[in-house]
Amino acid sequence: MSDTCGSKVIEFYQDSVVLITGASGFLGKVLLEKLLRCLDARKIYVLIRRKRDYSAQMRLEQILKSMLFDRVRNETKAAKALFDKIEAVEVNFERDDLGLEPGLRDRLRHEVEVAFNLLASVNFNEALDQALETNVECTRRVLNLLSGARRIKSIIHVSTFYSNCNRTMIEEKIYDDIGFGGYDNIKNTFAKLQDDHKQFLSPVVLGTFPNSYTFSKKCAEVVVRDKFGHLPIGIFRPPIAIP
């Protein structure tokens, strides 16, 4: 175990139960590898959706076979025991209950102590209503689950440095200057429109934002503050992610 992890960090994660969304993405894989290699968590739940004919477990196995995990596999004693700490949880992010059986939902709420929400669509040209569904509503559903977590100590919601890219000065605070009556009004309005009307209205809603990705991530930050400010939650705005 590397000393660079820091003793207080190791102490925080010692024997803890961690939950991750977005583990199939670039940042999610890096985070999962770091947790395995440096931090002695007791259990890591990875929330993954089924994709075509691949179950959550099959997708997790694909992730763990990648080169990124070679160091854990080849240089770590008892590597199998480390990988066995990870449990794939198959979810449907489009459902309010995430498609979880009540027993599994209760188990997550009873055990999870630390959570990372990295779930996001990074398609810059995605239709606005779909970007809001993935980046805002899916986040809301995950945080609703964690609202009932009895032992939760920390939640990190991963946003982006560009969530306020229409501003010349960005401070470490949440800006709620969402036009068109705010996020809830936008969501309710789009729910009543046909696709061609949504397409016509989207540029008006985006205003000075360059694309649906940055705007939806801004909306997610506001929802995190307004709906889940009672939780021990922080927002991380990474600038650019490279290997």
Would you kindly provide a brief summary of this structure?
One of its GO terms (cellular component) is peroxisome. This protein is of the alpha/beta class and 243 residues long.
Protein architecture, described:
This protein is of the alpha/beta class. It has a single domain, classed as Rossmann fold (3-Layer(aba) Sandwich). It is built from ten helices and six strands; from the N terminus they run αβαβαααβαβαβαααβ. Helix 7 (128-147) packs parallel to helix 10 (212-228). The model is unreliable at 1-5 (pLDDT under 50).
Largest sheet: 6 strands, parallel
In round numbers, the mean pLDDT is 93
Shape: globular
Return the CATH architecture: 3-Layer(aba) Sandwich
Major beta sheet, strand line-up: 3-2-1-4-5-6
How does the helix and strand content classify structurally?
alpha/beta
Task: State the helical fraction.
Answer: 40-55%
Determine the number of helices (DSSP H or I, runs of at least 4 residues): 10
First-residue to last-residue Cα separation: 22 Å
Total domain count: 1
CATH topology, anyone? Rossmann fold
Task: Give the percentage of residues in beta strands.
Answer: 5-15%
